[in-house]
Amino acid sequence: MFSTEAMNAETQSGVTDKPQDPRSRVNPLMVFVMVVIVAMVVAWQWYDTRNQITGLQQELAKRLAEAGASGKESRNLAAEAREAGRQAETKLSLLEAKLAESQSQQVALEALYQEVARNRDEVTLEEVEQLLLIASQQLQLAGNVKAALIAMQEADARLQRIDRPQLSPLRKVMLKDIDMLKAARYVDTVGISLRLDNLAAAVETLPLAMEIRPPQTRSAPGPIPAEENVWLKFAHEIWGDMKQLVRIQNMNKPDLPLLAPSQTYFLRENLKLRLLSARHALLVRDAASFKADVKACLDWINRYYDSKSKPAVNMLEALRQLHDSEIGIELPDISASLDAVRNYRLARERGSR
To answer: Which CA distances in Å does 239 have to 219, 220, 232, 244, 260?
Structure first.
């Protein structure tokens, strides 16, 4: 693109430098046309440049407006983010406070659980010790192996519910004593004692041997002749009545004792005392005294009472069964279990201090 000043300068320089040639002289009209064309081109370029600048300004304004809106939206988002951050911090603080509170509650609950567990274990151990004491008393005082076995099995079941590895040695000792009780011979002390009480109560129903009366044997009178007179008939009747006054009987016990009523009372009471003495010997597991008392009762019944009567036969049979019963068995000793429980409780108390 050439400007007018450049063309003038170039023309002037050509005039001064070279001599004018009539053939090279420029037509003014052409110059004018060229100037006009150049001006139109310049104007068009200026107009186009202006339009471009205007478009750029509008685009820039639009972009600035969008940037302002975006900035405002960003500021709003930043404000919302700051508000959300503050709310999150508040919630985090509340969560931390609740977490600290829950942790403190958990610690308190754990301490309470440990305390409750210790108390429960202590109560269970006390119950186990009481059951072992009951089992020992049943063996020592009543000789009741079955009751002692039930008490020890219940004590072992309560230890099993605790489920502590530290209780394994204690349970081992208890199971050993339980096996000893299972292997021991069982004597029904309660049943034998009740049978002796029933026999003592049945003493009043035993008939004495001296109270036996021979059976009435009345011979049928012979036929009396019709022509017999009244006096002979009366004499036969008197003779029949006189024969009933005296009876002769063969007794198996020629030395049948005759007892006065007071002696009869004391005989029954002494028989009851013998039965009660046998009951006492049973409870203290004195087999010799038990058999001696039962043997004395058998001898007294055979001697002073009617041994053929039904009450006497039943009592004699019961006494013979009791006499053959073996009550002098050696009972097992379960003191090892009781000592093990007491030692465990003592060690536990020392460890908790």
So the answer is: 12, 13, 11, 9, 34
CB 334 within 8 A of CB 177: yes
Going by pLDDT thresholds of 50, 70 and 90, the confidence category of residue 272 is: very high
Cα–Cα distance between 285 and 103 in angstroms, integer?
64
Spatial distance between the Cα atoms of 167 and 117, rounded to a whole number of angstroms: 15
210 has pLDDT over 70: no
On the question of pLDDT at 162 being above 90, the answer is: no
Cα torsion angle, 272, 273, 278, 284, sign? positive
Q: Is the dihedral of CA 117, 118, 123, 129 positive or negative?
A: positive
Q: Where do the domains of the chain lie?
A: 99-186+333-352, 189-212+256-324
How many other C-beta atoms are found inside a 10 Å radius of the C-beta of residue 259?
Answer: 15
DSSP character for 208? B
Enumerate the β-bridge partners of residue 108: none
Phi-psi region of 143 (alpha: psi -120 to 50; beta: other; left: phi over 0): left
- Give Cα separations from 104 to 96, 97, 109, 114, 347 (angstroms): 12, 11, 9, 15, 31
Phi and psi torsions of 257, nearest 5° = -75, 145
> What burial letters (b/e) apply to 84-105, b meaning 16+ CB within 10 Å?
eeeeeeeeeeeeeeeeeeeeee
